[in-house]
Amino acid sequence: MKKKVFLTVFTVACLLCCVIPFVGMTIIPSNETIGNEQQTTLPSINNEDGQLNKNYLQQLGDYFSTHYAFRPQIISADAEIQSNIFNTSNLDSVIVGKNNWLYYSSTLDNYLGRNLMSQRGLFNTKHNLEITQEYLNEKNIKFLFTVAPNKNTLYPENMPFYYGKKESTDSNIVNFTSSLKDSKLNYCDLFKTLADYDEVLYLQQDSHWNNKGALIAYNKILDCLGKSHNDYESATVSRKKNFYGDLGKMLYPTTQKPEYNFEYDIDESYSYVTPTKSVEEPNIVTQNDEATGRLYMYRDSFGNALLPYFANAYNSAYFTKTFPVDLAFEVGVQQSDTVIFEIAERNLIWFTQSPPVIPARELNIPTSTKSVDNNWKVRAEISQVNMQYVSMCGSVDSELCKDDSEFIVIVKDKNGNSKAFEAFTTSNETCDYCFQAYIPVEYLKSDSVNVSVIIKNGNEYLLTKSKTADIHEAKI
């Protein structure tokens, strides 16, 4: 009899646990977004054209999964149980480490030394940045590239033990730095600078550096640029336990505890030109009449803590998170004299996959080429980033290439004359031997273009057979 009562009570309790979040939606739905998720809206049975919405049930399920009652509380309770008892995470995107440390899961492969960028991928990144630097230098614009190290690249000691032995001691940032041995790329090595400090410069429950780490990075970057600046060594600094990290917000939306961060008492002499509510916004312009220089800075979330320092250091500063970078247009509009690219180590491959939008440099057509019969692909499309250019992209046979092969795109202009353009070397999910060149629309016919590619292997030039590519409209 007691067993029967227990089973009944247990069954009713389980049903209530399932029903309450659903029924509660009608009274107190959860409208709070957690982490970086996008808020969903209640779907309609019919589409705008009056037709039946075939995806209604799927959309309704998505809506319920982000709006059921007590959602933040339930997620937090589950996370507390799994992290404190089982030392694991209830989110695929967050790793629970030792001593209350949290790490971003997208950095795991790099930490374990597996699935790293290939030698060709590293060359592609370096080569694309060198092309970018050369383009800017020809316009008397300084360029600097820097990488914010992954948290577990600098501080691996609090990663969980159950991942086992690393496959290698390599990492993308170490391999990339090594690839720059003979390069003229103006690279600022923050990994070495931050690693040399005995104290921890990243946050426990966040994926980024703390404010002291950001200040050290700022000073190193401007030192590399040779720009005089306030280093804030004499600024009053305090430690306050009032910071809520991004990973903690994702894992513990209602039970997260604050952690210590540094606060510097600095005179912010800049003002916002754009209507700015948060440094998280994708495009921000600042003005400081007490400083000199005009900065254009591509930055990711690591740049949030950097922004006030750089805004103070430059008369005019444009900060963007928009990617790919519409560099030629935006630098022209902003009349920038300095360009900085800052990116997280976990996103280093982005400049291999989507190089900045700048006009391809016109070259002389090599006189001594060897024709090759190979299977290569090309696509011509009006750039969706900047419609003044046709994006000429494709891939070539890897067997004809070396790790440091470069590409030249040959096109016939609207007058039937052949022109040669330097191409970015790019990668996609299946191939590291791809190319991309942004060619001004004014050079080409509006409907199609005759294209061939030269593979440059040192002093050897291999010429593919030409193809006719239709010029597609931009995908908006």
Detail the poorly predicted runs: none
Oligomer kind: single chain
CA-CA gap between termini: 67 Å
Strand segment count: 22
**Proportion of β residues?**
15-25%
Shape: globular
Number of domains: 3
Proportion of residues in helical segments: 25-40%
Q: State mean pLDDT (0 to 100 scale).
A: 89
Radius of gyration, taken over Cα atoms and rounded to an integer in Å: 26 Å
Question: What would your notes on this structure say?
Answer:
There is one protein chain. By secondary structure, this protein is α/β, with parallel strands linked by helices. It is 28% helix and 24% strand. The chain contains 13 helices and 22 strands. The strands form four sheets. Strands 12, 13, 14, 15, 16, 17, 18, 19, 20, 21 and 22 form an eleven-stranded mixed sheet that branches. A seven-stranded mixed sheet has the order 4-3-11-9-10-8-7, with helices on both faces. The chain has a two-stranded antiparallel sheet with strand order 1-2. The N and C termini lie far apart (67 Å).
